[in-house]
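Feature request, filed as a ticket because there's no other form

It would be nice if the structure record came with a short human-readable summary line next to the tokens. Right now we just get the raw output. Example of a typical job, pasted below so the devs can see what we mean:
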Amino acid sequence: MSITAERAQSYDFSQPTLNAGMQIAVPAGAAERTSPGLIDFLKLLFSKSILVWLGAALVLTVIPAHIIWLVERGHSDSMVSKSYFPGIFQAFGWGLGMLAAAPDDAPRHWMARGMAVVWAFVSIIFVAYYTATLTANLTVEKFDNQITSPSHLFGKKVCTVAKTTSANFLRTLGVKTDDAPSIDLCFNGIRDHKFDAVVYDAPVLRYHVANDGAGLMELAGPIFQTEDYGIAFKNGSDLRKQADEALLSMREDGTYELIKQKWFGSGESE
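Raw output as currently delivered:
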């Protein structure tokens, strides 16, 4: 178990059997799925910020549409009807066409043509800002979906084991979690898409990813909240000295490294 100052008051611990810490595991392929898809794009397209931009486009088009109609209707070969309806709709359609750089027709009146030049520059700037805003929001959406550190766990469905150092750490951090009685329930929840991430002891996660969870889960980000793990004995136990001697001997002759690679794979746990 994790060696902590609080536990050291109740138990005698052996030399560390493993130097690791906590880590995050996510469903396999989660990193690739963070790229926004069609549904994410549609949600963003109708988000509050984008609707504000579209509302601004509407206002910016209505104002010049009235100016164009008032000026252009006095020309003998006007591109709009002299009547307010449908003339204003024709002018409005021309304004939207300018935003898309594809107007249906060109004004005939010299004042309207001057207005068209000004509106062309406004349209270029507006579309550039709109495109930049949409791209930036898509990029933010992508990074917000990624989980590579504890700071990315806020707002996610996170599972850990109740009454463990992992649960205490996440609670201190302010991350809401589903505390399960066993880590297997967290693993099952990941496979059933109930959770976005599992936070627990790195060796346990590494073992599962390398064995039963291969192809189903993957580690996300580096080890954090470094901890030593050891064997707990009752206070004053004579077995502690024997365990320490065996552990030190295994490290010296290379047996420890072979065992670690066998169960945790080739990735480093220390």
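Something like this underneath would help us a lot:
The two ends are 16 Å apart (CA to CA).
The chain is about 55% helix and 15% strand.
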